[in-house]
Amino acid sequence: MSDLVLVTGASGYVAGHVISELLSNGYRVRGTVRSPGRADLSHLDGVELVAADLGSDAGWADAVEGCRYVVHTASPFPSAEPEHEDDLIRPAVDGTLRVLRAAAASGVERVVLTSSVAAVRCGNPGRDLTEADWSDPAACNAYEKSKTLAERAAWDFVAGNPKLELSVINPGMILGPVQRAVAGTSVDAVRLLLSREMPGVPNFGFATVDVRDLAIAHRLAMTAPRAAGSRYICAGEQVSLPTMARTLATTYRVPTRVLPDWLIRLTARFNPAARTAARYLGQTERVSAAKARAELGWTMRPVEQTLLDTAAGLIRFGLVADPGAPGGKKASTASRAVVA
Questions:
Q1: Is the pTM of this model over 0.90?
Q2: Which of 15, 86, 181, 199 could form a disulfide with 73 if both were Cys (CB 3.0 to 4.6 A apart)?
């Protein structure tokens, strides 16, 4: 019988692709959701759903029962800064520890934790970063701090529980096709460009990764002998929003005019979204996925394909209206077929 894997937060964007990747590779998969009866995960045929909430101990012992591996993807990712940072930090840290405690008690062999390059880059400007680097919590916003402290807590836990192996994935900005009519925060940049909600494009960017490649990285880290006790940055070179816009503009009618930094900073005085954007102006995100390539045999698809597949998925599921192609025509059906 194939190994059973628990994937936390099964209704999430990353979790859905991880589950699909595991199922297609012959694993049995159990997924946690808050309310199984309300979760519409019909796109994930073959997954067993169980109730478990990061905010409660209830359900976790049953969730991990019989599992050889756990992939912990669940963590809050809001579109705006919370009023109180602990609204993010406490669920991230406490939830991670709940999952690890249950895994250790049940005899799970290895946990793969979805962290972020946010746990690597903050307070480390102007240089190439690797898995040896850690964010300074004092330089982090609430989300970045939640990822940093949750990962730190995970490493501290396994240090005191050596029978439980831990591998951590640190993805960059996650893009790629959605699997259902729900769009998370991660793909907001593409959605906003397609909907033309912005008059232009702010000049900042992030190191990116395709969610499908990220799912493969989780599967590889789950079983690779060298992955136990290791972090893996999974992200390519920084891609600016103007570059994203120009790529999308080859197929869709989207804004490509670059907004000056001074305008973003001025607007940030009264606009929360602009305030978030202003924080990243002038920053360069230089991270290396060399370790994941060398130790996991991991590869990434071209970012141009990722961007167009992201757009096609958002349009396919009605999350954004088809903006038409350059010149006022409808976007080609070929561009929509990539996620079918």
A1: yes
A2: 15
